[in-house]
Amino acid sequence: MESTFDFLNLFSGDEGVVRLAPGEKLFAKGDSATTMFVVRTGSLQVHDGNIIYETVGPGGILGEMAIVDGASRSAGVRAEHESEVIAIDQARFLRMVERTPFFAIRIMQVLTRRLRHSNERVRTL
């Protein structure tokens, strides 16, 4: 579960909510990306096929890598339970980074934590 920072407090009043049923995909590996997501309710699994990398719950973020580097999605995301996510487009993301340095630092912390976790998985193979 995402525990570094609760991003929900920055976007709690948002109306751009996407609702997902259990098992429904938010996006697939390889999809193009211009949006990241903040989990409002439920939980979502970051996966590649049958491998689940992480389960992200309320306050966590998804899709931040692709919005930062402009590449396609590196993994898929599907709802583990009934879930709601708030969509943050690239323009809004960039405004948040510019106006709220704390937001940018928290994004970097999430990316760093995920990279360290990925490195640990590779070491154990």
Strand content: 25-35%
Strand order of the largest sheet: 1-8-3-6
Structural class: alpha+beta
CATH homologous superfamily identity: Jelly Rolls
Tell me the CATH topology.
Answer: Jelly Rolls
Largest sheet: 4 strands, antiparallel
Low-confidence stretches: none
Give the termini separation.
22 Å
Q: Please, how many domains? A: 1
- Gross geometry: globular
Give the helix level as a range of percent. 25-40%
| CATH class category name | Mainly Beta
What's the count of strands?
8
- Provide the residue-averaged pLDDT: 88
Named at the architecture level, the CATH assignment is Sandwich
The whole-angstrom Rg is 14 Å
Element string (H = helix, E = strand): HEEEEEEHEEHH
Number of helices: 4
Describe this structure in a few short sentences.
This protein is α+β, with helices and mostly antiparallel strands and 125 residues long.
Protein traits:
125 residues, alpha+beta, Jelly Rolls, 8 strands
What's the topology here?
Elements: H1 8-11, E1 17-20, E2 25-27, E3 35-41, E4 44-48, E5 51-56, E6 61-62, H2 64-69, E7 76-79, E8 83-89, H3 90-99, H4 101-123
Antiparallel strand pairs: 1-8, 2-7, 3-6, 3-8, 4-5, 4-7
Helix pairs in contact: 3-4
Explain what you see:
This protein has 125 residues and is an alpha+beta fold. The chain has one domain: Jelly Rolls (Sandwich), CATH 2.60.120.10. The strands form 2 sheets. It has a 4-stranded antiparallel beta sheet with strand order 1-8-3-6. Helix 3 crosses helix 4. The radius of gyration is 14 Å and the shape is globular. The mean pLDDT is 88.
